[in-house]
Amino acid sequence: xxxxxxxxxxxxxxxxxxxxxxxxxxxxxxxxxxxxxxxxxxxxxxxxxxxxxxxxxxxxxxxxxxxxxxxxxxxxxxxxxxxxxxxxxxxxxxxxxxxxxxxxxxxxxxxxxxxxxxxxxxxxxxxxxxxxxxxxxxxxxxxxxxxxxxxxxxxxxxxxxxxxxxxxxxxxxxxxxxxxxxxxxxxxxxxxxxxxxxxxxxxxxxxxxxxxxxxxxxxxxxxxxxxxxxxxxxxxxxxxxxxxxxxxxxxxxxxxxxxxxxxxxxxxxxxxx
Length: 273
Ligand code: ATR
Known about the structure:
Layout: E1 3-9, H1 17-28, E2 32-38, H2 44-53, E3 56-61, H3 66-72, E4 75-76, H4 78-83, E5 88-92, E6 95-99, H5 102-113, E7 122-126, H6 130-141, E8 146-150, H7 154-164, E9 170-173, E10 183-188, E11 206-214, H8 223-230, E12 235-237, H9 240-255, H10 262-268
Parallel strand pairs: 1-2, 1-3, 4-6, 7-8, 7-10, 8-9, 10-11, 11-12
Antiparallel strand pairs: 3-5, 5-6
Helix pairs in contact: 1-9, 5-6, 5-9
C-alpha cells in the first residue's frame, strides 16, 4: 500500500518539499506520496488529526506551526526538545514522535557538501530566533573551538547561552561585543535576508577564505552574502542544501533508506550573483 506523508504549513505556495520527497521516493523505489497541506492559523491539530485518520504516516512541519507541533507531539526526541520546535513527525498508532532535522541538515550541508569541517573551527551564528536555536545543539555536537551567537536583541542571545552553554564552548552577545574576532564559518540565521536587509554584522568577522552561509534560499546574492564575498569569504552558500539535507534526514528516519542529495541540490540551486 502506498504510504502517505505531507508537509503542513501556511502558506505553501512555493514549497519544494513535494518535489524533493517525490524525487527521493523515485530514487530509492519507496512507495509513498508526499503532499502539501495548508492549514489555517488555528487549525494545525485538526489538520494533523485528519491526515492521521486518513492513514498519514508522517509529516514535515513548517512556518508557522513548528511550535504547535512541539505541543502536539506525544514524544519529543532530544533535538526537537532543545530546539523548542518540531519540523518532522512520525505516527505510530496513538504516538506522535517528534524530531527536528533543520540543524542537522545545516551541519550536513556545511560539512559534507561544502567541505568545511566544524570541529576545531571558529563558528559565528547570527540571530537568536527559532532558526538559530535549532542549529545550536547540532553545531555544538561538532565540537567547534568556539561558537559565538550574536543578536540585535542581546537578551535573546543570552537566553540561548544560558540554555546551551552546557553543551560546548558557547559565547553570546551583541554585534559590537566581539572586537576584531574572526571566524571560519559565519552563518546568517536571522530573517533579515527575507526582506533584503543586512544584519549589522562587522565586516571584520569574515576570516580570509571563510565560509559564509545564509539560511534563506532562492534569493540569489543576499546583502549578507554580498558583504561576505566583498570581505574575503572563500565560499558563499544559501540554504538550499540545508533544505534538501533536512528532507533526506526525515526520509531516512521514516523509511530506513538514505537518498542521495547532490543531484537535487544541483537542480534546485540558483546562482548567487
Ligand atoms: P526565525 O524563526 O526565522 O529565526 P524569528 O524567531 O522571528 O524567526 O527570529 C528572527 C531573527 O532574525 C531574530 O534573531 C531577529 O533579531 P531580534 O531578536 O533582534 O529581533 C533577527 N533579525 C531579523 N531582522 C533583522 C535585521 N534586519 N537585523 C538583524 N537581525 C534581524
